[in-house]
Amino acid sequence: MLKKTWLLGLLLTTAHLYAQKIENWKGFEKVVFDFQGRQAWYVKPAMALEGKPWVWRAHFPEWHTDMDSLLVSRGFHIAYVNTNDMFGHPSALLVWDDFYRYLTEEKGFARKVALEAVSRGGLYAYGWAKRNPGKVSCIYAEAPVCDPRSWPGGKGEGTGTPSEWEKWKALYGLNEEEAGKMEDIPLNDLEGLASFKVPVLHVVGPADRVVPNEENTFLLIRNYIKAGGPATVYTLSRSEQKNNGHHFTIEHPEVFAGFIQQNSYPVQKMKESSAYIETSAGLSNALQKFKAGGVATVAFLGGSITFNPGWRTKTMKYLAEKFPGTKFTFISAGIPSLGSTPHAFRFGRDVLEQGVPDLLFVESAVNDRTNGFSEKAQVRALEGILQHAKTVNPKMDVVVMAFADPDKSGDWNAGKEPVEVLVHQKVARHYGAAFVNLAREVYDRINAGEFSWKYDFKDLHPSPYGQEVYFNTIKTLLNTAPQKEALAGLPAPLDPGSYARGRYLGIEQAQKRKGFNYVQSWKPADGKGTRKGFVEVPVLVAENGRGSFELPFEGRAIGLAVVSGPDAGKISYSIDGKKARTQNLYTQWSGQLHLPWYIMLDDELKPGKHRLTVSLLPEKQPSATGSACRIVYFLVAD
Q1: How far is CA 241 from CA 206, 210, 237, 248, 250, in A?
Q2: Angle of CA points 610, 611, 615, to nearest 5°
Q3: Which of 115, 101, 67 has its CA nearest to residue 264?
Q4: At residue 389, does pLDDT exceed 70?
Q5: Which of 5, 96, 364, 439 is 20 to 30 A (C-alpha) from 202?
Q6: What letter does residue 568 receive in the DSSP assignment?
Q7: Dihedral sign (CA 280, 281, 286, 287)
Q8: 270: how many CB neighbours lie within 10 A of its CB?
């Protein structure tokens, strides 16, 4: 029923698209229709090229159409949707998103489009291209506005248009001071677009006083080339320069038509991101709340790929733009090096204490592999997170993500499925959470020749290119209908031993301390790196191979969250007086930084009260500089 309701709503919002009329455009058929209350049209060639390449006009669609006419005669479509007088505002770009989906999904247009921008159309073309770089084949622009402070603002050498500047400020809700500091303009943040090597060609007049080249085209092209993008400027001067140099004749339209054709055809075949998404019950609870307005909370729980800016910050920006009536609280709970077991125990403090999410993004597949957690441990941890989340907020929607790394690609090359991906998928399916297999998408698209790991994606900490790949798939998920009904309640657990109530127990609970000292704000003296949340915090410390303590606790699992640095040692521990076991605290990364490291000492205990006894052993690890134990938290699960 949920999927039918979603689809019915989609049909109701798009039904008006079929009220079309046919007009003549230079001897070609022009299909004119209403799109979301806006005029839209596309021109059909007599015989479309394979893959249906197309050009998207931004503003002034009837200006300098000789090039368009040539392209249509060669088999291109030309399209336009009227978002005039919106100055490239995010709300206009969302209309563009919908128009793009309509033409590519309903009409079969190519997945990559050539953008053609004239004057203020540059605000639209670059605004949309930077948000969707993988969907753009090239950008052709004539005297484009690249900084609204130049036009309509007139804050530099240009004439400006005061009435339009007031409209622009009102649309963006900015006063004069705020407008002068506006960052979301075509000139900035070009790294993602440049990483896709989208060819850019600007055609300008030599003495444009309306949209001065020095404040617009020349700055953008310089920034774009510096970011690694291919760009060209062509100055047209063999014609009369009108309107203060802003209007000029296109001397050789066939040259510029050739630029678009060369970069748009043959049409590049692309893998569909939707093929790597299992929406399951989807995100309908969260999206309905976002659409209703008010307040909402979105959390991101993961390792360094979540901690670093990129797909996460792009997702936050997209949600804020798509639902402007909602005041979002974004909880960024990414900590480098941490996987599913740490996430399960820190979920309460790092997420829930900051706010109960309506939408939760979770990732740990990369660190679960590198940190060596077993399949059983991964299930217990991921399941624990979802159980905990759904217990606190039964309507919380969850997205479980598996990110890419060379080890997973190696598994697929060997004909086997990576354990981490299978675990993420299994747990997501069991709880009706969405699952996004970004690791497989990256692997398949590399093998299909769309891009390379070495020169494009570059690292498991993705380049700007990789971050755009990740974000595009997340964006696709946010616009995809659910596949099945939401679960009525929590299902029976996959593993009764899951860390469903995993939590931190404070180090001040340690008793009978000998040699273990409580340090209120610990930081290393050796200059090695640290991780946020594990430096300048309280730590229970013993050094030089001496120290012991006891810990009373209640639950069926006990563990330690330690800082494992160059001098990490080895401990001996026993539970309830049983045979002692040893645990090495030194890791393969300990020589490089003081790494947060989570160790489960026992997760098969009977529920109830227990006592843990820990002693630091004097023996030094072969690569270690000493024998120390630094505990930040105790880990307990009921």
Answers
A1: 9, 12, 8, 5, 11
A2: 150
A3: 115
A4: yes
A5: 96
A6: B
A7: positive
A8: 14
Find residue 609's DSSP bridge partners.
Answer: 554
Quote the DSSP letter at residue 273. Answer: G
Residues 166-179 as b/e (b if ≥16 CB within 10 A, e otherwise) read eebbeeeeeeeeeb
The pLDDT-based confidence of 9 (bands split at 50, 70, 90) is: very low
Question: Which domains are seen in the chain, by residue range?
Answer: 20-264 (3.40.50.1820), 273-478 (3.40.50.1110), 503-637 (2.60.120.260)
User: What would the two tokens of residue 264 be?
Assistant: 């748009």
**Residue 507 DSSP class:** G
Q: Model's pTM, two decimal places?
A: 0.94
Strand partners, 53: none
Could you list the beta-strand ranges (E) of 111-221: 113-118, 136-142, 200-204
Task: List the structure tokens of 66.
Answer: 């000789």
Q: How far apart are CA 390 and CA 350, in angstroms?
A: 16
Average pLDDT for residues 401-407, to the nearest whole number? Answer: 97
How do 557-564 and 595-602 pair as beta strands? antiparallel
Q: How many Cα atoms within 13 Å fall on the side-chain side of residue 236? A: 23
Question: What mean pLDDT comes out for the span 253-281?
Answer: 95
**Cβ neighbours for 189, distance < 8 A, ≥ 6 positions apart:** 130, 183
C-alpha of 105 from chain center: 23
pLDDT tens, residue by residue, 49-71? 999 999 999 999 998 899 999 99
Pairing between strand 113-118 and 136-142?
parallel
Q: What pLDDT, on the 0 to 100 scale, is given for residue 536?
A: 96
For 40, phi then psi, to 5°, come to -145, 155
Angle formed at CA 159 by CA 155 and CA 162, multiple of 5 degrees: 70
Which residue is it, tokens 């001040």? 508
* CB atoms closer than 10 angstroms to residue 530: 17
Rounded Cα distance, 385 and 346, in Å = 10
Q: How would DSSP label each residue in 438-505?
A: HHHHHHHHHHTTS--IIIII-SSS--HHHHHHHHHHHHHHHTS--SSPPPSSPPPPS-TT--TT-EEE
Vertex 181, ends 177 and 182: CA angle to 5°? 115
- Give phi and psi for 118, each to the nearest 5: -120, 130
**pLDDT of 95 higher than 50:** yes
Would you call 633 helix, strand, or coil by DSSP?
A: strand
**Alpha-carbon span 394 to 357, nearest angstrom:** 11
SS3 assignment, position 269: coil
Question: Dihedrals φ, ψ of 390, to 5°?
Answer: -70, -25
Spatial contact of 499 and 557, defined as CB atoms under 8 Å apart: yes
The Cα 540–Cα 526 span in angstroms is: 18
For the chain, the average pLDDT equals 94
**Alpha carbon distance 178, 235 (integer Å):** 34
Tokens of 450: 């769309």
211: number of Cβ within 10 Å:
27
- Decide: 132 and 195 in contact? Cβ < 8 Å: no
Comparing C-alpha atoms, which of 408, 473, 469 is closest to residue 443? 408
